[in-house]
Amino acid sequence: MAFDFQMYTPAPEFTTSAAYFSMEFALDQALKTYSGGLGFLAGSHMRSAYELRQNLVGIGILWSFGYYDQGRNEDLSMRADFRLKHYSFLQDTGLVFPITIHNAQVLVKALYLAPEIFGTVPMFFLTTDIPENDYISRTISHHLYDADTAARVAQSILLGVGGGKLLDLLGRQTDVYHLNEGHGLPLAFYLYDKHGRSQDEVRKRLVFTTHTPELAGNEEHDIKLLHDMSFFGNVPLDEVRRLGLIEKERLNYTLTALRFARISNGVSKVHGKVANDMWGQNAGISPIIAITNSQNGTYWRDKPLAAALAADDDEALLARKRELKKQLFDIVADQTGTLLDPDALTVVWARRFAGYKRADLILRHFERFRALVTNQDRPVQVIWAGKPYPKDYGAIGLFNDIIQKTSKFKTCAVLTGYELALSAALKKGSDIWLNTPRFPREASGTSGMTAAMNGCVSLSIPDGWIPEFVRHGENGFLLPLANLHEPDHVKDDIEAKGVLDVLENEIVPLYYGQPADFLAIRKAAMREVEPEFESHRMATEYYTQMYNRGLGS
How far, in whole angstroms, is CA 444 from its chain's centroid? Predict the structure, then answer.
């Protein structure tokens, strides 16, 4: 059975037929198929691939309840709500097909997102939440990153095997399969079985992107669980052992993907080195290069702001920036009842809430922070936003603690609902984008790119993409790094002091005392972030450095 989906004629340099597998895609505020940076990155990739006319399709999962809706309890603390999502713009392909999970048949339905809906390449979303399946099977595609281990394994099978089988049913010739992170790893075993149980044949077709230097983020499981769940498909466990993929009766997704891929990449120059340090000593892995993540300018940049920059009209640029700040502050007032000042220096920390990202670093020397945000002559406003994983109680506790600590300040706010729309408003309506991960644990950190596109200046630890871009005092500000070998609490103290030092001694005096110089830094950030960190460059490099490299060998 074939589904005749809309395609376009690819540009001559992008005729290699590729399929991009990702557990999450942030394509539009209306489509809840993402949690954070991985999804934002994948969404920008799909948009630039479309604008460049690349011969690419996207494969994802339709999450019935999305990630979660972030709300508030009566005491203003965070609450995770789960509501069923409905989408009229997804087209039923009529394709329903079986895959095997836990030695049982599970039916998969494929829905289609046409290019003209959100300006992406053709995309397919898989679901098991259909009446033909039993209740347990239906729940596989209910929640992105389900907390249950067996459910997570089943989701990987759905993405990898379901996606691979869908492409076969569509009759689409696919030259390259791109795993964006290790979640879809069962695809490698599907291809291995399909192509004569030859690892070399899989290597001809598979490329891999690793996104995290966090060991905990590189998923691994006991092989008995994976075997019982049908993770390896038709490939016997003894054969998996012979391939040298199992260590201490566990299988690591990232390491296995590196051994099946012909080439892999980290997502910044720093991360490329970190990834090689992490995995390079393992036998049989592919080369790991660096392709720095980036974001789609068409989607993220404010058009009037960009037009003012292009016209070199400082007055129009500042007027538009002030207007964007007011729009953001309307959201702040609506959520929190706090009314902020569009003329005051505004610092934003907003991204996925995880402990190593240190959302509270600026609060660590609290009396200095208090003095900064209560200074009536040169006020500093600080906004936080972000979604913790709903079962990460440490990160949720941190989110709530920031609310509690800053609630008495008229210049501070903590926002809920950090999704695409709020992210855009924060980037367009802020002056300083604060980024404080524990080095070197931020693989890329693309939020600062889209902030820079909108005249928001980075104040950042030199991790991820930042060393490739920021020149201190010229297009952004760098935070001093503590000695890497110091204990975490010592590093936190030193780097927290650095945040306040740079704000007090450099940024605040510049913003209030030398506004023309601060504007020059704003404009330099806007001008220099593109095209190097706009996703046309990234999408092109995936073709030239990965999809076409070694093809047919």
Answer: 9
Phi first, then psi: give them for residue 187, nearest 5 degrees. -55, -40
The predicted model scores a pTM of 0.97
* Farthest CA pair distance, the chain: 73
Parallel, antiparallel, or unpaired: how do β-strands 380-385 and 18-22 relate? unpaired
Report pLDDT digits (tens) over 439-484: 999 999 999 999 999 999 999 999 999 999 999 999 999 999 999 9
Cα–Cα distance, 552 to 322 (Å, whole number): 54
Question: What would the CATH number be for the domain defined by 297-532?
Answer: 3.40.50.2000
- At 98 the three-state DSSP class reads strand
User: Given its phi and psi angles, is residue 46 left (phi above 0), alpha (psi -120 to 50 degrees) or beta?
Assistant: alpha
| Domain assignments of the chain as residue spans, ordered by start | 13-295+537-547, 297-532
Q: pLDDT tens digits for 157-204? A: 999 999 999 999 999 999 999 999 999 999 999 999 999 999 999 999
**Exposed / middle / buried, residue 289 (Cβ in 10 Å: 0-12, 13-18, 19+):** middle
Euclidean distance between CA atoms 176 and 155, whole angstroms: 22
Give the angle 451-393-228 at the CA atoms, nearest 5°: 100
- Establish whether domains 13-295+537-547 and 297-532 are of one fold: yes
Per-residue model confidence as pLDDT tens digits over 499-549: 999 999 999 999 999 999 999 999 999 999 999 999 999 999 999 999 998
Question: Would you say 258 and 495 are in contact if contact means Cβ atoms under 8 Å apart?
Answer: no
DSSP assignments along 296-326, one per residue: -HHHHS-HHHHHHHHTT-HHHHHHHHHHHHH
**CATH 3.40.309.10: does it fit domain 13-295+537-547?**
no
CB-based contacts of 444: which residues, under 8 Å, 6+ apart? 37, 41, 211, 267, 268, 271, 292, 293, 464, 465
| pLDDT reported for residue 286 | 98
Distance between CA 20 and CA 534 in Å, rounded?
19
Report pLDDT for 217.
74
